[in-house]
Write a structure and sequence with these properties.
- By secondary structure, this protein is mostly beta strands.
- It has one domain (4-196).
- It has helices at residues 18-25, 37-40, 129-141; strands at residues 4-10, 29-36, 49-54, 59-62, 72-74, 78-85, 90-97, 100-108, 111-117, 153-159, 173-175.
- The protein is globular, with a radius of gyration of 16 Å.
- The two termini are 16 Å apart.
Length: 199
């Protein structure tokens, strides 16, 4: 079936400043449970769920794909917003440094819909976009996704009020999202999301 995950990786551990991060993103979250990393990284994150893993140097949040179509950027950190669906062969990567978009790629069925910004070092050691997402995630977190043990601890949160599915223009949050590309009807219809073209 392949991986179908989406979320935001940040090169700063916000475990002790969790409320600060929520404020910057305009989110209100309530802790629901302690879970394993394996559960946090499970395919197809439900809307309203935010699973969080803290590495020594970073924060990795798994959220629904709808929330990952634009960049979640911070003025004081580097972020990777990603959506990866190997089932539908649809991928979205937005990498920001200190609030500025450095690289943006959207690919569907091997076709690049968006390819903007300076080439990342991780691209030189990546065979495809899926590989690139995981390699850039390792750069941001300071730890490879594949080196995280399935039983390591993570936390499950729920959104207690509806959070925007795209970054809000808060003073602390730099909106780094690019204009969403318009696809021709041969790729997807107006009623379908870009990663749902197979329906």
């Amino acid at each position: 079936m392949g991986f179908n995950i989406s979320g935001v990786a940040i090169n700063k551990n916000y475990k002790d400043n969790w409320q600060e991060l929520q404020n910057k993103f305009g989110w209100t979250l309530k802790k629901k449970a302690d879970i394993s990393f394996e559960e946090a990284a499970a395919n197809w994150k439900d809307e309203g769920i935010c699973d969080v893993y803290f590495s020594e140097k970073g924060t990795l949040m798994f959220i629904s794909i709808d929330r990952c179509l634009e960049s979640w950027a911070l003025k004081d950190a580097d972020t990777l917003t990603f959506a990866l669906s190997e089932t539908s062969m649809a991928f979205n990567l937005n990498y920001c440094e200190k609030g500025e978009v450095e690289r943006s790629i959207m690919e569907v069925n091997g076709d690049r819909m968006t390819d903007e910004g300076e080439r990342l070092e991780a691209e030189d050691r990546s065979e495809d976009i899926s590989d690139l997402i995981f390699n850039q995630m390792a750069v941001v977190l300071g730890k490879s996704f594949w080196s995280i043990e399935p039983g390591e601890s993570a936390e499950r949160y729920v959104f207690v009020q509806e959070a925007p599915s795209y970054p809000a223009s808060e003073p602390e949050l730099t909106v780094a999202g690019l204009e969403s590309p318009q696809f021709e009807s041969s790729v997807t219809s107006a009623s379908k999301k870009w990663w749902q073209f197979w329906k």
